[in-house]
Amino acid sequence: xTWQEVVAQLFGKDHAVVADGDFLSxxxxxxxxxxxxxxxxxxAPIGYxxxxxxxxxxxxxMAQHPGRAILLLIDTQGQQLRRHDELLGINRAMAHLGCxxxxxxxxxxxxxxxxxxxxxxxxxxxSGLIADACxxxxxxxxxxxxxPAMARVTKLPEALLASxxxxxxxxxxxVQNYVRMGGVRSLWPADGLAASLREAxxxxxxxxxxxxxxxxxxxxxxxxxVIDQVLxxx
Length: 234
Fold this sequence. Notes:
Number of helices: 11
Number of strands: 9
CATH superfamily of the domain at 3-137 and 188-203: 2-enoyl-CoA Hydratase, Chain A, domain 1
Helix content: 40-55%
Strand content: 15-25%
């Protein structure tokens, strides 16, 4: 589904969301309130410039519209793999974007992420995974690393990783595996996007429940217990 189709399903014609190259931004009316929309398209690689443009929208929303909800529309192939961006500080630009989203949450802005196409690697980690909750379309593609690349990094055989991916979602790409791990809160049906957004805005808990969701869904069975033990330590 394209971003235009997603926006039309969510808001009809009552929006001012536009694309400037790979960058999406604007606002939309929804159930009597205005929502800030920011994101990316065309499987955009998130470089320093795109990260800073997204961060600016979040900062402007906090400054000019306190408490306004923010919808992140996510379609990214990950961070920009380019020496130019490395030299200009892509790591700090992406960290800045993540910090801006976290600050918006702390200041009372409800931040909802929606993976409508593709979400890979650092471009996903510094956006949708930092939102109050991240959701996805059923046909979305989500992964951090392909199994062949994972094999090169871990020095483990591809066959072993492929076998582990059948029983452990941590090793496996795919939107259903991210639901099991708690990274994706729910899947939004294409014919019910507006109802799903309405439910997310109304019922997303303020406390981060990803680890608890991963435990209850059998995808990350130890993370929540470890967090509880750390928080309980003197």
